[in-house]
Specification:
The protein has a single domain, classed as Aconitase, domain 3. The protein has 7 helices and 5 strands, in the order E-H-E-H-H-E-H-H-E-H-E-H.
């Protein structure tokens, strides 16, 4: 219950191109405010393959990768339904993911601050 998260999932359902760009700017702002260059919790943003291809053409892609964030096409719900993965402390801002898995929910602002600082913000 009080375990430090080992992973943050953003994007369930998968993010659109505008959403992943917006998240890039949000995390950039939160990292700057925290005095950090990289996320403090392993963070994965999920999007469809076509969105990822377009995103890779944007300046935001390089920024997001330099922050230590991974971009993936994996389905977070299927990942979390693996019994081994379900044991890991995972955080998310997805109501869907928290409803159907063991992931702990934080609203988007709280999650952004949490991954930027490594400290729970509630």
């Amino acid at each position: 219950k009080d375990a430090k998260p080992s992973l943050a999932f953003i994007g369930c359902p998968h993010l659109s191109l505008s959403q992943i760009k917006d998240w890039t700017h949000v995390l950039e702002k939160e990292l700057k405010a925290a005095g950090n260059d990289k996320v403090q919790i392993r963070t994965v943003m999920t999007c469809p393959p076509a969105v990822e291809a377009k995103f890779k053409e944007s300046p935001e892609y390089g920024k997001l990768i330099s922050m230590g964030v991974k971009v993936s096409n994996i389905c977070p719900l299927m990942y979390m339904n693996n019994p081994l993965c379900a044991k890991a402390p995972v955080i998310t801002c997805s109501n869907k993911l928290r409803t159907y898995t063991t992931a702990r929910y934080y609203n988007p602002d709280e999650l952004a601050k949490y991954v930027a600082t490594g400290k729970e913000v509630r």
